[in-house]
Structures are given as structure tokens and as C-alpha cells.
Design goal:
Endonuclease III, domain 1
Length: about 210
């Protein structure tokens, strides 16, 4: 397994804050090869977060690995941005499909890749490499195509809780998803037990909402 240093996840630029301990291996796909890719590739993790809607978490975060296997190598933002849209849509739609709505998500992934190329030279980790604080990181995530407030805050919490990306005020910027000891989102999933707790929390929230 290729290990990832805190510096790799923070980006190459020196910053004024120091990253904390990082999980050796994320377990969001609950599949070894897919999780290994997520653990070493910031772009793969970002794409997994983008895919994480309207399908189970494990399916979403296995998506980057499925795409990389079909491409024959790890994800590259420049390649994805330049890919023929119809061909990329077909690549995601091939069985097993990467998402319930492969054509729509193919367009979103290409839009994300294009934004990364235009603003970060294709390097996903540059989003957080030189931020001054959590509020700035949240603003950068909110600017990404396909990232609304909830998705941006969850990803920020994931970076802080599991990957050591912890600029000042990161928990506050992540909102409720940054709370220590919470089991609200993928940011809190580190094994099958925590996954079950997150799902239980979501189910309880749905039941509470239905009673209002």
C-alpha cells in the first residue's frame, strides 16, 4: 500500500498551521483497493464526495476506483477535463455503473476537473494547501462545481478528522459535521461500526423530520 504523508495531503506549499495526525487509510468504500486509491489520491476522494448523493456511500466512494480501472491508471484532472463528454459518459455508464445517474454525474465530474485545471493546475490538494483558516477553505470548497454548503462542510470535516488538514477554525467552518465524537456523515466513518452509527443517526433525523 502506498502511504500518504501529511505534507502530501496539505499540498507542497508551506503554511502557517501544522496538520495533525492523519488516518493511515480511509475506509469509505469499504473495499480495499478502492479505499487505497482514496487514501493516496486527493482527486479520487474529491470525486467520491461529488458522487455521494442519491446512492449508498460505499457505491459513491468506489466510483473513483471504477473510473480509474476503466481508464487504466489513477485519475488525472487534465485528462478528465479534456475527455470527450459522450465517451466519458459511456465510461461511467458501463456495467456496473459508477452511479445511478451516470450521464449526469459524468458531466459534473468533468466540470469539477475543468475547474481544478483552471484554478489549481489540476491538483486537488492545492485547494487546501495554502489556506489561512477554515473559513477560507470552506469558501474554496463552496466554489467547486457540484459542492453545496452541506457537501462542502462534510468534505472539510473529512479532511480535518481523517486527513490532518486542520487550519485554524476548521471545526467551526465544518459546522455540525466538525463536532468531535459526532456520527453525522462520511467524515465520521472509519470502520463498519462507525458506518452503522452514521446510518442510524441519519435514519433518526429522517424520522424526526417526518413527525414535524
Amino acid at each position: 500500500m502506498i502511504s500518504v504523508s501529511n505534507r502530501a495531503w496539505r499540498g507542497e506549499s508551506e503554511v502557517t498551521w501544522k496538520a495533525g495526525p492523519m488516518s493511515e487509510h480511509v475506509r469509505l468504500a469499504q473495499q480495499p483497493e478502492a479505499d487505497e486509491l482514496l487514501s493516496r489520491s486527493p482527486l479520487a476522494l474529491l470525486v467520491g464526495m461529488l458522487l455521494d448523493q442519491q446512492i449508498p456511500m460505499e457505491w459513491a466512494f468506489t466510483g473513483p476506483y471504477t473510473i480509474s480501472e476503466r481508464l487504466g491508471h489513477d485519475l488525472d484532472a487534465h485528462e478528465i477535463a479534456a475527455y470527450d463528454p459522450d465517451a466519458f459518459s459511456a465510461l461511467l455508464a458501463a456495467k456496473p455503473a459508477v452511479h445511478r445517474y451516470p450521464s449526469s454525474m459524468a458531466g459534473r465530474i468533468q466540470a469539477l476537473a475543468t475547474y481544478l485545471v483552471e484554478h489549481y493546475d489540476g491538483s486537488a490538494d492545492r485547494i487546501w494547501a495554502d489556506v489561512d483558516d477554515g473559513a477560507e477553505l470552506l469558501r474554496r470548497l463552496l466554489a467547486l462545481p457540484g459542492f453545496g454548503k452541506q457537501k462542502a462542510q462534510i468534505f472539510l470535516a473529512l479532511l480535518g478528522k481523517q486527513l490532518g488538514v486542520r487550519p485554524p477554525g476548521w471545526r467551526e467552518a465544518a459546522g455540525p459535521y466538525g463536532e468531535e465524537g459526532a456520527h453525522r456523515s462520511v467524515a465520521d466513518v472509519v470502520d463498519t461500526d462507525s458506518l452503522a452509527k452514521v446510518r442510524a443517526t441519519k435514519q433518526e433525523a429522517k424520522r424526526a423530520a417526518s413527525k414535524k
